[in-house]
Amino acid sequence: MEDVKVFNFKAVGKGVLVGTVSVDLGNGISLHECKIVGKDDAELRASVPQRLQRSKGNSTYHDMIEFTDKSVWDRIEAQILSHYRGLDTAS
Question: What CATH number did the domain enclosing 36 receive?
Answer without folding.
Answer: 3.30.1120
